[in-house]
Amino acid sequence: xxxxxxxxxxxxxxxxxxxxxxxxxxxxxxxxxxxxxxxxxxxxxxxxxxxxxxxxxxxxxxxxxxxxxxxxxxxxxxxxxxxxxxxxxxxxxxxxxxxxxxxxxxxxxxxxx
Length: 113
Prior knowledge:
- By secondary structure, the protein is α+β, with helices and mostly antiparallel strands.
- The protein has a single domain, classed as Glutaredoxin (3-Layer(aba) Sandwich).
- Helices cover 35% and strands 19% of the residues.
- The chain has 5 helices and 6 strands.
- The strands form 3 sheets. The chain has a two-stranded parallel ribbon with strand order 1-2.
- Strand 1, helix 3 and strand 2 form a beta-alpha-beta unit.
- It is globular and about 55 Å long.
- The N and C termini lie far apart (34 Å).
- The model has no long low-confidence stretch (mean pLDDT 90).
């Protein structure tokens, strides 16, 4: 999560027309505490029953944790990009994600450009 937070401005166009939502089977109290500590603009959803996690095939049933799956969903609700799993330690993974976000929602042109 720290990498998403640290690269938020460049990866997600500083939140312009982009919503970043983490989904976790951890209890909501744990998530609220963790996200406050992170001081991140990223939203999080507690999926304690695993319903959403199962529908995206992200739930590890044996460990009762989420796999690090990442989906980009466009404004129409269509999945346009997925990384199963998302390679959190590889910069190329963030570059690919940023390129998909820019493709769907190009950043504004620089002033005077």
